[in-house]
Amino acid sequence: MDSYWFFEGTDLFKLLCPHKFKAYKRDHIFNAYNKNDYIYFQEDSANKVYLIEKGKVKIGYYSENGDEVINAILTKGELFGEKAILGENKRSEFAQSMDNTTSICPVGVQTLHELMRDNQSFTLKIYKFIGLRLKKLERRLQLLLCKDAKTRLLEFLYDLQDDYGHCCPETGDMVIIHPFTQKDIASLIGTSRPTLNIMMNELKENSLLDFNRKEIRIKK
């Protein structure tokens, strides 16, 4: 997930936001959500995709037993609801705001298809984005099904490193400044928050990493 407004060098907001295009500027709006507000539910009509201007959004579904399963937690600049582009008629997941300052720009599927029809480069970027998103989701589900909690945590940290990390020139450590709470991370790797705390502290005691609320430092 390229969560700082960029997808392989492309600013998703500038690329997709309707205010960029005169023909759609009049329909350009932002919707505000508070914490726990739903943007859409499972089985809702899928006729829009959404860009996050600010805030944090949880994507997931409810199992037959009523348990919440989290597929992704997305932040500023990211796109969701993208399966509507591929012809999904009803939502197979829910999208829920996770804070009180979430601002979303909805883009109608018809509008997006018109933009894609007129711009081949734009179309390729969109399909590549969707392909990578589905590939990452498939990999995460395989981890949940086949790997133990510690392995899932380590794989998650590797992903965070790719998405949010930078090398500290003084120490050579990988510094990861990320938007996730411990509760978010526990949900994403399919474990409890106490179990996550135990695993993180074990890694810290073994001098493999250090961490605080907003930063994880993987030791060289």
Structural notes for this entry:
One of its GO terms (molecular function) is DNA binding. Keywords: DNA-binding, Transcription, Transcription regulation. One of its GO terms (cellular component) is cytosol. InterPro entries: cNMP-bd_dom, cNMP-bd_dom_sf, Env_Response_Regulators, HTH_CRP, RmlC-like_jellyroll, WH-like_DNA-bd_sf, WH_DNA-bd_sf. The chain has helices at residues 12-16, 109-118, 120-146, 149-164, 182-189, 193-205, and strands spanning 6-7, 10-11, 31-33, 38-40, 48-54, 57-62, 68-74, 79-80, 94-97, 102-108, 165-167, 174-177, 209-211, 215-218. The protein is of the alpha+beta class and 220 residues long. It has two domains: 12-144, Jelly Rolls (Sandwich); 147-218, Orthogonal Bundle (Arc Repressor Mutant, subunit A). The model is unreliable at 1-11 (pLDDT under 50).
What is the CATH-assigned architecture of the largest domain? Answer: Sandwich
Shape: globular
Termini Cα gap: 24 Å
Q: Kindly state the number of beta strands.
A: 14
Per CATH, what is the topology of the largest domain? Jelly Rolls
- Main sheet record: 4 strands, antiparallel
Structurally, the number of domains stands at 2
Query: Percent range for helical residues?
Result: 25-40%
Output the CATH homologous superfamily of the largest domain.
Jelly Rolls
> Are there runs of 5+ residues with pLDDT below 50, and where?
1-11
Q: Please give the CATH class of the largest domain.
A: Mainly Beta
Mean pLDDT metric: 83
State the oligomer.
single chain
Number of helices: 6
Percent of sequence in beta strands: 25-35%
Task: Spell out the helices and strands N to C.
Answer: EEHEEEEEEEEHHHEEHHEE
Structural class: alpha+beta
Strand order of the largest sheet: 3-10-5-8
Determine Rg (CA atoms, Å).
18 Å
InterPro entries: cNMP-bd_dom (IPR000595), cNMP-bd_dom_sf (IPR018490), Env_Response_Regulators (IPR050397), HTH_CRP (IPR012318), RmlC-like_jellyroll (IPR014710), WH-like_DNA-bd_sf (IPR036388), WH_DNA-bd_sf (IPR036390)
Domain Cyclic nucleotide-binding: 12-92
Pfam families: cNMP_binding, HTH_Crp_2
Protein name: CRP-like cAMP-binding protein
